[in-house]
What we know:
By secondary structure, this protein is an alpha+beta fold. Helices cover 26% and strands 34% of the residues. It has six helices and 19 strands. Strand 6 (173-179) and strand 7 form a beta hairpin. The longest helix is centred in the N-terminal third of the chain and has 30 residues, at 2-31. The radius of gyration is 30 Å and the shape is elongated.
Amino acid sequence: MTVLLSIIWFLIIISVIVVVHEFGHFIFAKIFKTRVEEFSIGFGPSLFKIPGKETTFRFNIIPLGGYVRLAGEEVLEEGYKDTDPSLFYNKKPFQKFLIAFAGPLFSFLLGYFLFVGIAGVYGFPEVIVERVGRDSIAAQAGLEPGDIIKKANGDYVFNPSILELEIPSGNPLELTVVRNGEEIIVTLIPELTNERAIFTLYGIEDTESLNLKNKEIILLNDEEDLYTVMSRMESGDPIELQLEDGTIIEGKFFQYSYFPPMYETGIVYSTFSNVIAKGNDVFMQGDKIIEINGVSINNGSDLQNAIYRIQLNSDELMFAVSGKEVINEYKPFIDNTLELLVERN
Length: 345
């Protein structure tokens, strides 16, 4: 039933977009007194037609696409007069351009008015600071968890991706922030990070006893440049890590993701929530996950980290590295049992 409803809604949305697009061509054709012979919605055999004074409105069996057929649109057909002013062929160049451009224009206007209408009813999405990295540029500038970022360099921000577009240049970033109902201005200069990577290993013995966080990897397979070594490795290759405290970890390489140096601010956004948005067989809408297998879940980042751990097998280990320092580690839960503590109003 869900799939069927999705298909029906898809067809309805496509039909609306097509009607509005073709209506743009139709209206401008009428403005310039161009004869419209047919206004067709869909393709294939006709379901029914509504004849008009000049235009036949046709509804076809396949509700995908559509078209407006103008008299004299391509070449002069038999029966047309060269001097007929209602032919598209005889219209001035700027009129032809506007008739052709009206379709995309109306499509754009449809999107704009839908956006404004939805925003008027539901409001614009807010970009909320979930947390700031320790000793990060954002922390030094005074940003706090719960701050709402309203503008970046004078431009309204509705999505973290919009803000991220301002960061890669490394130029100063002036943020208009709402805190406790009051607007404040925070200025920060993005900082160039070290190269980073996320590694996943397997075949690790006693992952629970390992403690890598905030330690440096000084050797990887007896080499110092761990990123170069990792780039040469394939899944299943043996791997040996030596930490600064002398700890040696042996296992096999599974995969890694590499991130080159880039400008960052240290802001973590509330894009992932530990509050259930839609109820199901297990949860009720509004349930708040506050603990998983004894691990506290205070925000979306904590929940995401727990999900990483849930996905790991008992002999797997995942960790994130900045430069040579391990900045985060994800160890599998001790057993396959999943116990959640939920706060329910």
